[in-house]
């Protein structure tokens, strides 16, 4: 499971949060016909999922952000 190793501090926590938010999104989307208030949860969950995914992506170490031009000799 090489892909699940986190190099950023707290990276596993962010991956777990994103996974939980995906499950909440799916549950809210599927249960929307029975309980219309789940539409609000589904909409707000989308923003929370976006924010968590962006924060997790931006929290990686800075040494991987070199451009191709800077890496060439």
Key phrases:
mainly alpha, 62% helix, 0% strand, elongated
- Taking all residues together, what is the mean pLDDT? 78
What share of residues are in beta strands?
under 5%
Q: What low-confidence regions span 5 or more consecutive residues with pLDDT below 50?
A: none
| Radius of gyration from CA coordinates | 17 Å
Structural class: mainly alpha
Biggest sheet layout:
none
- In whole angstroms, the N-to-C terminal distance is 34 Å
* Silhouette: elongated
- Tally of individual helices: 3
Q: Which sequence of SSEs, written as H and E, runs from N to C?
A: HHH
What's the number of extended β-strand segments?
Answer: 0
Helix content: 55-70%
What can you see in these coordinates?
The protein is mainly alpha-helical and 73 residues long. It has a domain of 50 residues. Helices cover 62% and strands 0% of the residues. The protein is built from three helices and no strands. The longest helix is centred in the middle third of the chain and has 21 residues. It is elongated, with a radius of gyration of 17 Å. The model has no long low-confidence stretch (mean pLDDT 78).
């Amino acid at each position: 499971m090489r892909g699940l190793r986190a190099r950023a501090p707290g990276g596993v926590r962010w991956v777990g949060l994103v996974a939980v938010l995906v499950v909440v999104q799916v549950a809210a989307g599927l249960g929307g016909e029975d309980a219309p208030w789940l539409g609000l949860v589904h909409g707000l969950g989308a923003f929370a999922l976006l924010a968590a995914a962006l924060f997790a992506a931006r929290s990686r170490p800075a040494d991987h952000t070199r451009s191709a031009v800077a890496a060439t000799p």
